[in-house]
Amino acid sequence: KQWYQRRVAITAVYFGKQQWEKNHYGKPSRMPQNVAVLGAGLMGAGVATVSLDKFPKVILKDISDTNLSKGEDMVGDVLRKKVKRKKMSQFDCDKLMSSLITETDYSKFKDVDIVIEAVFEDIDLKHRIIQEVEAATPDHCIFASNTSALPIGDLAKVSKRPENFIGMHYFSPVPAMPLLEIITTDQTSRETTAAAVEVGLMQKKTVIVVKDGPGFYTTRVIGALMGEAFACIQEGTSPADLDKHFVKFGWPVGGATLVDEVGIDVAYKVTKYFLKVFGERISAGDPRIIQEMVEAGCLGRKNGKGIFLYGKSNKGGKRQVNPVAEAIMKKYAVPGQVAPTSEDVQWRTYMRSVNEAALCLQEEIIANPVDGNIGLIFGIGHCPQRGGPFQFLDTYGAQKFVDKMRDYEEKIGFRFEPAQIVMDYANSGKKFMS
């Protein structure tokens, strides 16, 4: 029976992915040709990398030549790996690298069709950049923000062309992660959406389109997932055990590793924001843990120091827990708490993520369950063999899910209150994937 359920789940993922390999919004009347990327950090360099061989002109802009040099190095690293694996010739690698235009100003933005912004998650900084870009680009130019959590509508408030404003949320590392989450506001035109989807498809991404809101879809689910993971750590689960429990359950990476991959500084900014808009429902662990980690310079894989240490110091390829991060986690440990079992860690984290996905469907952030499954599987590796949150709800049973959530709600608290839409489906016997 389990084998059959997994086959059904994987088949559903396959056909769901096929749905978004074509542009449901139609071909845009003006196909984007010239692309500019703002910010030469990990995300910006990644976006430039997947755009280089797809568009006639790609500009990478940052505020300094030093930052641009680092960005070029990151682009080059990805291309050189392709040469090493014989997926690209050295000639093509050199040709692409020479075609990348790097700039510290907007002088070459006069014919740009789409600008993809990938700067720090600071709304004031983004507002200033939006105004600068619109002054330097033609009226038809699309402005796409790669923000991971800030509402696109809030960013678009300073835009003179809100119909051309959209969110394009890439996942790190961009060249490796298949998903692109496109976010539309009530003012975003269908033409802009069609063009953004087309850009994503040209970059070989699996694209989903979601509505605007805090954290959109994927970041909101990650917020619930990470919050519960940190709660388990506070209750005595070690980072190494957390990783083991996640992988055993079907996640491609462990919970602590996922935090390091996302970036602890990014997680902290998102957590602070989510606490303002969602309150304690979406969070679970004490936010001071990640705050103090950031203050101590523990940013994640990006700087070699997160929950784990990264680099040559790891003997035999086994990662060591960062002693600085470990001391901070122990500082906020719940006294006298018995560490949750492997099964509890697995189900608590997974069910929180599934419930948050259901809330997003209930609030029409996502259009349908298929988009919900594809978004989480290809965006955060959401236990692919289970078919995504909504396939899981059908296979596991909505009523069984509600009962288990109620059990955790009684033992732990209100953050385990099941979504109304799941309770409705449980009462009616309806299936999400029917």
What labels would you give this structure?
434 residues, alpha/beta, 51% helix, globular
Query: Residue-averaged pLDDT, rounded?
Result: 93
Main beta-sheet annotation: 8 strands, mixed
The outline comes out as globular
Q: Regions with pLDDT < 50 over 5+ consecutive residues?
A: none
Report the helical percentage: 40-55%
The percentage of residues in β strands lies in 5-15%
Task: List SSEs in N-to-C order.
Answer: HEHEHHEEHEHEEHEHHHHHHHHHHH
Radius of gyration: 22 Å
Helix/strand/pairing class, anyone? alpha/beta
Strand elements, count: 8
The N- to C-terminal Cα distance equals 20 Å
* Helical run tally: 18
Q: How do the strands line up in the largest sheet?
A: 3-2-1-4-5-6-7-8
Describe it.
The protein has 434 residues and is α/β, with parallel strands linked by helices. Helices cover 51% and strands 9% of the residues. The chain contains 18 helices and eight strands. It has helices at 2-19, 42-51, 65-84, 90-99, 123-136, 152-155, 190-202, 218-234, 239-249, 255-262, 264-278, 288-295, 323-331, 342-362, 369-380, 389-396, 398-411, 420-428, and strands at 34-38, 57-61, 101-103, 114-117, 142-145, 165-170, 179-184, 206-211. Strands 3-2-1-4-5-6-7-8 form an eight-stranded mixed beta sheet, sandwiched between helices. α1 packs across α15 and α14 (342-362) packs across α16 (389-396). The mean pLDDT is 93.
